[in-house]
Automatic annotation (TrEMBL):
GO terms for molecular function: beta-N-acetylglucosaminidase activity. GO terms for biological process: glycoprotein metabolic process. The gene is Mgea5_0. It comes from Araneus ventricosus (Orbweaver spider). This is Protein O-GlcNAcase.
Amino acid sequence: METASLLGCAWENVVGYCDGKIVSSKRNSEQKAALIDKDRQLLKPLRRVPLPVSSLMSAPFTWFSKGYKETFMSGEQEPWAFLGGLTSELQHLLPLESVNDLFLYKPPEIPNNKIYTIRPYLPSDEAQVYDVCRRTCDDGMDGSEVFPEYPDLIGDKLVGHFLCLSPEYCFVVEDENGICGYALAALDAQQLKTKCEMCWIPELLAKYPAPKKGNGEMLTPAEEIIAGFYNRQKVGPPEIVYVHHPSTLRMNILPTVSDPSVPKRMLTCILSTLKANGSHGVFVDVTVGDKNIVDFFSKLGFLEIAHPGFHVEDVFYMGRTF
């Protein structure tokens, strides 16, 4: 009886089987009240949390917040005092304080047992990253048939400079079939732009000869991109974008990835890395008319960066601070 009480089970009826007969023991209300009160007294010490910890639990503190680490390293209490257990505590280890929406995962509509692994980019992943880029370059859909004569062209334009000039801020996600998505970032977007002008664009000019067409002849989509390398205008985001969003991002995931938590987890990795190195905001450039891409980043908490003095016909910018 006492064991049942300690487990929080104040039995109203205890039924047993003895000598072929059913035995029932009825507790009166006074006995039940006494057992419940005893249980509460036994459990009360387990619910005590020191004052410094309780003050930290009421705010969005992380392991990097002042006083948090010192409190939990003191040895006075267990480090998983936060609601959510060990998973919540591991999330608090990330240097992020305003990205709670990235920890809310909607379960997939159709249950599956696929496992996705997010890891840092390796040089051996370049070919697969380029392949994902081709298969998502047309507003998130496959654009491989648009550039049949230059299979690496769209990758060189969109992701090559990240892989070459900023590999330490690049992540990929893979399943049993290989890489199925990537998140590529640069800590300093202005510095990345300068490096591209100095070394990446010259490499592209050497790799892709200028298209030669007679008067009135139309350029193919691939030739238009190549011509853009030669007629490149030094137009980029306005300075106000860099003030609040000093970092830049390129992120795509194959449509075959059905788990909606994958892009959130990838973005969490990127934002944590950028935040730990001093950044506080990131932006993406979006082609006008790419509705799927706009929806994709909107679900990840990105908002359009409006600036009245900046007008470009084919591109706009979306950003997120953290």
